[in-house]
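Q: Here's a chain of 69 amino acids. Please give me its 3D structure as tokens.
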Amino acid sequence: MAAAKASTPAPDAASDYYYGMHLDVARVVSHGEIPNVCRAVPVEMTYEDSQGVQHTIRYQVMGTGCSGG
């Protein structure tokens, strides 16, 4: 007899954000920590859309380690 599938589907793999991409973000579920470096780094955000479907998006942010001056 085959094993039953889990009732909760596995989360989708992260999609890479591109400029102009339409995002239907109703609620942010989680957001990756931005490292203390002075360069652009990838960060992932998991969100629910207006239909309640969860998505994960990967995008670039500037690290928090750059000092002004």
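Q: Can you summarize the key feature?
A: The radius of gyration is 16 Å.
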